[in-house]
Here is the input.
Amino acid sequence: MKENQPLLTPIKLGDLKLPNRVVMAPMTRSRANNKDSAPTKDLHVPYYTQRATAGLIITEGSQVSKRAVGYVYTAGIHSEAQIEGWKKVTKSVHDAGGRIFIQLWHVGRISHPDFHDGELPWAPSAINPEETVFTPDGQKETVTPKAMSLEDIGTTKQEFVQATKNAVEAGFDGIEIHSSNGYLFHQFFSSFSNKRDDQYGGSIENRARFFFEVLDAVSEVIPQQKIGARFNPSLHGVFGMEVTEDTIPTFDYIIKKLSDDYDLAYIHLSEPFTDVTNVPHAEPDIAKRYRPMYKGNLMINTGFTQSTGNKVIRDGDADMVSFAKLYVSNPDLVGRFREEADTSGWDKDTFYTQGEEGYLDYEAETRELIPQQ
Here is the structure.
């Protein structure tokens, strides 16, 4: 398989040339400074730089404001300390020949008052997701959030705009809007979590309106070809979400509109996290459904290996593949694919712990440590 691997062929995202189609997926790793939610020189810089052979790195989800926080030890992009921390990361990745986008994140109702000085998290509607979140005092049950007012929605749009400006200042090559995994945008999309009766609720067009208004606003800051967006159309049974009769039609509308009216760097789709073969209205094969609908670059994620990643591109169902757990334990993943070397397993017990263990101590075993220029 060394020769003619689709994963190892170049691709362009606008004017950004990627040497391969192996993408490091955004992953929460809980290593940020808990005092100011800033990435650190000792942890984040080497972690991302070790993985600079990826065609593209997409960072962990980074909060656009204090209001957007829902987990401890996660990084933000809304303060000077955070911008300065990310500057060190982007410089090091670029010096190693890599390319890096930041994922902009607002968790919405997947949060807790402990993060907000006792105030309720914000969401499209006052519906408790009935999940648990990792707070400074350990795991706690979620609460019924505050339904966002029109002013709250306007405030949040401006936070995404400012976060985009901050990302540019920090040296990122682009941004990815986290509109997946049951977080704020996804909560607006779903009739399961969005019961509003104003212009942001009810019809599919209304439930998608907030996302497109934010996308239009950040497009005034950076070109659309420096923007990606992530979606999980068949998310079911996790993050407080369920697939309903109008779930797939909603994502059909969103993705068709993105294809017809926008020119993004890519859309980033997740195959189902759970078995949805017997879930009414769910779509078990996301890549095959949305490839015919989307004319731009389509990135696919969830459970891919070297073999299945090459196949999905060769079959024409995706243009890029993002890898998560494989990138936890294989910083030289591109090199391993190129040399057909075995991949190392990961320790799930250290996914979200603090410190170097399970973060910086996975060894590269191939020659390809720095991208070919």
Q: What stands out?
A: The chain has ten helices and 14 strands. The CA atoms of residues 235 and 272 lie 6 Å apart. The domain at 6-350 is CATH 3.20.20.70 (TIM Barrel). The first helix runs from residue 44 to 50.
